[in-house]
Automatic annotation (TrEMBL), chain A:
Cytochrome c domain: residues covered: 332-424
GO MF annotation, one: heme binding
SUPFAM superfamilies the UniProt entry points to: Cytochrome c
InterPro entries, per database record: ActD, Cyt_c-like_dom, Cyt_c-like_dom_sf
Pfam family, one: ActD
Keyword Secreted: no
Keyword check for Endoplasmic reticulum: no
TM ranges: 64-87, 121-140, 203-225
Protein name: Cytochrome c domain-containing protein
Superkingdom of the organism of origin: Bacteria
Keywords: Heme, Iron, Membrane, Metal-binding, Transmembrane, Transmembrane helix
From TrEMBL, chain B:
PANTHER family, sorted: POLYSULPHIDE REDUCTASE NRFD, PTHR43044
Gene Ontology CC annotation, any one: plasma membrane
Top-rank lineage group of the source organism: Bacteria
Name this polypeptide is given: Polysulfide reductase, NrfD
Family: Belongs to the NrfD family.
Matches recorded under InterPro entries: NrfD-like (IPR005614)
Compartmental location: Cell membrane
Keywords recorded for this protein, A-Z: Cell membrane, Membrane, Transmembrane, Transmembrane helix
Length: 442, 466
């Protein structure tokens, strides 16, 4: 069919071709073959369903659609692989970087896990190409077609079979071509003209287009607004918990009579973490109330780090450690201490306290340079330490040993100290100190 | 629109009638025009049957209830469901897998039977494709609202958002699902719409009312039925069918990965992908029968959708139903044969645990009822077919329920717990059927429910042996 509708004479109808109707599909295919044999080239058939043989009869070239679809599939494959590699495989220091998110030590980019999405995108891209390729190759959608002026042609989608010879054909001549069509069995022959009117785009289409263009601008603008460096609040359709009604510290408020956003602590409350010192320094810190609270609550590692500076800081004064237990010493407490010691301490210090726990043994066998072997609890120096000092070591740690304040509560720490004392006693007791009935019989 | 298989090359070869017996299109004096008249008059009838109005009224109300429940869920949160620890998935995922499965028969009829040149598909494929689209719509709703804050469902897509500062995890089966179901919905829609273009053009050419003419004119994209257009169209349709075939198999395979990639006993099996696909096709064909049997009665399509069509579908149901039954047996066998006590417990618990009733509903509906189709009298009686298809739908829903409820016994006894659906769960399942039937009834009312062009082509072949 001719598409040269942009003719120069706006009032005069221009002949586009002739349309001939045939009674049946067979007749149409036969007529098409005869017409092309006769020498016509710009010929087209119209039928309500696809006809076998008409492509050959019309000498139509094969469509390139399968190749387009193939290219679509390859594109889909590449897009999927690049997308997955970019999104989960790389990380850059800018805003739309990918995001490396390792799970269970699986590789960041693992092809087997990426196959499902790749497969789906190959299908998706191929299908979209097949669909839109069909429209593109057929020149659809078409808003205007002069063929629809023909009353008869409306049967083409029902049971009409038509042959069209375009006026642009070299052999075309209105009367001769019509006669030819009649001679090969056409039931009717009708010339189709383009009636050129002052064709204008309807106003409502313009309106729809303008609204559509405006709507199409929203997503890129939104992305731009979300990605920008503006300090004003972000555009949020749903705020969720991004912004909350709240008072910030050190600001004013109309809510309270004193105009302060922050509240003073009610009388009698104790600030978090300050309860222990206020309550019982002996029990919670192992220090006599009149003693000096040296590096209270500072983990041992940090204390030594401070000491190791260029100018050796003066060693902090030794506090006045508690010499006796601030808890009641019972058999029960000792048992509790043994249990806790075996759980928390024995892995490094060993069950007997000689510093031969499993972790230590393993670290030494691996020659771990960073490992500090724990002191034997039976060292003279340790045995002479007051209980408060041992308690402090358990609480805040020393050298490599972390503080166990958070894992073991104060009562249990004292139980462990008691058990440590018992352990030391067990290795250094003289015969006199052992009750008569427990001494080995000679 | 298959021509290649009859490309004898030489049109002078005398017509061979033996290949179609009995005729695919029955009835005296059936012409191209009479087919157009039959099919188009359904969409053009200014006074649809009263049954349509009654059905539509009910379906639309149920769909409205579904919408209201979704609204309530969005305002309140997913706590309105019975989902709990350890059954975090509950009914939403059951409904999702169920609906996705329903959709599969549509694509299978359209694409696979098309590729195998099964001409009996022509009068039922439009129906089945529409069913696919609407089932996928219902399916997509459930994971969409199951994410909790549904307005963030777009986080599943690889979109650049600085708000999130991270990308979706492409090694997760749940994300594969997004791509699989998204692609499936898109391709099914394209396939359905593309198949409909020539028939929409028929409706356009017959339309009297300007609004109808405009609407069908817009939808038919200026289709004329030119030989050149048909050539590209057939190629594109064949390609879409060829693409949809592996797609339909992949979709339910990926849905099954949601389960199979987990470490849970009873789920962590390689049988899941084929078993899920067979189940999906099985349930889909069940639903096609459920819809087709009453529709051909109401719309007077018995000469187009013949008993032979229905019989063929029953045969596919026997095949897929037997596969599903075989899979149930295999699961038990493997649990015993593997010697894995967790696996064994999972299956014994399915059959005799707290949800034994669901398991046995599933077995009786899915294993026993399709076997009745071996009897010729059963598979040629529309009434019995309809009843059995309902059983299949019920059974396949319970199959997904049983699989999900395996969650109630985890490895750790500390996380054991039973799932109890709430009223909202139950109403939402019913509501999704309302949505499905509303869409379907609208489709019956306004679009060509039989692929006219394809039926005419088959008629042409029968008459002339092309």
């Amino acid at each position: 069919m001719s598409d040269d509708a942009n003719n120069t004479t706006p009032t005069e109808p221009q002949l586009l071709g002739v349309l001939a109707q045939f009674p049946d599909a067979h007749d149409l295919v036969a007529a098409a073959r005869k017409t092309t044999d006769e020498g016509y080239r710009k010929v087209d058939g119209f039928s309500p369903f696809p006809l076998h043989g008409i492509d050959e009869a019309l000498r139509a070239p094969k469509t390139i659609l399968p190749w387009l679809v193939f290219c679509g599939g390859v594109t889909g494959c590449l897009v999927a692989l690049c997308l997955q590699y970019y999104v989960n495989g790389v990380e850059f220091p800018f805003i739309y970087s990918g995001y490396q998110f390792p799970i269970s030590a699986k590789p960041i980019f693992s092809l087997p896990a990426n196959i499902p999405v790749t497969f789906e995108l190959i299908i998706l891209f191929s299908s979209l190409t097949a669909f839109f390729g069909m429209f593109a190759l057929n020149g659809l959608p078409k808003l205007h077609n002069p063929l629809f002026r023909s009353e008869r042609f409306s049967r083409v989608t029902n049971d009409g079979f038509f042959l069209w010879i375009d006026a642009g054909d070299d052999k075309f001549d209105e009367t001769a071509t019509s006669d030819w069509l009649n001679s090969i069995g056409a039931t009717s022959v009708e010339p189709i003209s383009e009636v050129v009117e002052g064709r204008q785009v309807p106003a409502f289409l313009l309106a729809v287009g303008a609204v559509g263009a405006a709507v199409a601008l929203v997503p890129p603008l939104w992305v731009a607004a979300a990605a920008g460096t503006s300090t004003s609040p972000r555009l949020s359709l749903w705020w969720d918990m991004d912004y909350q009604a709240k008072f910030k510290p050190q600001t004013t408020s109309d809510l309270f009579a004193d105009g302060r956003a922050m509240r003073k602590a009610p009388a009698g409350t104790v600030a978090w973490g300050s309860l222990q010192e206020q309550q019982d320094q002996r029990y919670f810190e192992g220090i006599e109330p009149d003693g000096v609270a040296a590096h209270r609550g500072v983990p041992a590692q940090f204390v030594s780090a401070q000491v190791e500076g260029d100018a050796p800081a003066e060693a902090p004064p030794e506090p006045n450690w508690t010499k006796d237990f601030p808890v009641e010493v019972t058999e029960e407490l000792m048992e509790r201490g043994r249990e806790r010691f075996d759980i928390y301490c024995a892995t490094c210090h060993g069950k007997a306290g000689y510093g031969e726990g499993l972790v230590t043994t393993r670290a030494l066998s691996l020659n771990q340079g960073t490992w500090t072997r724990p002191l034997s609890l039976h060292d003279q120096a340790v045995r002479e330490q007051p209980v408060g000092r041992i308690y402090n070591t358990i609480t805040n740690g020393i050298r490599k040993m972390p503080g166990y304040r958070l894992q073991v509560d104060a009562e249990d720490r004292w139980a462990i100290v008691l058990y440590v004392r018992a352990l030391q006693k067990s290795q250094h007791a003289s015969l006199d100190e052992i009750p008569e009935e427990l001494r080995p019989k000679r | 629109m298959a021509t290649a298989d009859f490309a004898f090359g030489n049109p002078d070869i005398s017509p061979t009638e033996e290949w179609v017996e009995p005729h695919l299109v029955q009835g005296e004096n059936t012409t191209y025009d009479s087919i157009t008249e039959t099919v188009c008059s359904i969409a053009e009838n200014p006074r649809p049957p009263i049954a349509w109005f009654v059905s539509f009224f009910i379906a639309a109300n149920v769909a409205g209830m579904f919408g209201a429940l979704i609204g309530w869920l969005l305002i309140t949160g997913v706590g309105v469901w019975g989902n709990n620890n350890p059954v975090f998935w509950g009914w939403p995922i059951v409904n999702f897998v169920f609906w996705v499965g329903i959709g599969h028969a549509g694509t299978l009829i359209s694409a696979i039977l098309f590729l195998f040149r099964q001409h009996w598909r022509t009068s039922i494929n439009r129906f089945a494709e529409a069913m696919t689209i609407f089932a996928v719509v219902c399916a997509g709703t459930f994971p969409g609202i199951h994410v909790g804050r549904a307005w963030f469902a777009y986080w599943l897509f690889p979109l650049p958002t600085s708000q999130l500062s991270m990308w979706p995890q492409f090694r997760s089966p749940l994300l594969w699902d997004v791509f699989a179901v998204g692609t499936y919905a898109t391709v099914s829609l394209l396939f359905w719409y593309m198949g409909m273009i020539p028939d929409l053009a028929t409706l356009r050419d017959r339309a009297k009312h300007p609004i109808r003419r405009f609407a069908y004119g817009l939808l038919s994209m200026g289709w004329t039925g030119s030989a050149g257009h048909w050539h590209v169209y057939e190629k594109a349709y064949g390609l879409l069918a060829a693409l949809a075939t592996p797609l339909v198999l992949s979709v339910h395979t990926i849905v099954s990965f949601d389960f199979a990639v987990a470490q849970l006993p009873g789920w962590h099996t390689t049988i899941f992908p084929p078993y899920f696909v067979a189940g999906a096709v099985f349930s889909g064909f069940g639903m096609v029968l459920t819809l087709m049997v009453p529709a051909r009665e109401w719309f007077g399509l018995k000469h187009l959708v013949t008993t032979r069509h229905l019989e063929n579908m029953c045969k596919i149901i026997i095949a897929t139903g037997s596969m599903v039954g075989f899979a149930y047996g295999t699961e038990f066998f493997i649990a015993w044969y593997s010697g894995n006590s967790y696996e064994q417990f999972a299956f014994v618990n399915r059959a005799f645990g707290p949800y034994w009733w669901a398991y046995w509903i599933m077995v009786s509906c899915n294993v026993i009822s399709p076997q009745l189709f071996w009897i010729k009298a059963v598979r040629t009686s529309p009434l019995l077919m309809f009843i059995i298809s309902i059983f299949i739908n019920i059974g396949m829903w319970f199959e997904r329920f049983v699989i999900v409820m395996t969650l109630h016994r985890d490895f750790l006894p500390s996380s054991w717990g039973l799932f109890k659906p709430t009223l909202v769960d139950i109403l939402m399942l019913i509501g999704s059927f309302g949505l499905f039937f509303t869409l379907f009834l609208l489709f019956c009312r306004f679009l060509p429910i039989i692929a006219m062009a394809e039926v005419k082509q088959v008629m042409h072949m029968e008459r002339h042996g092309h």
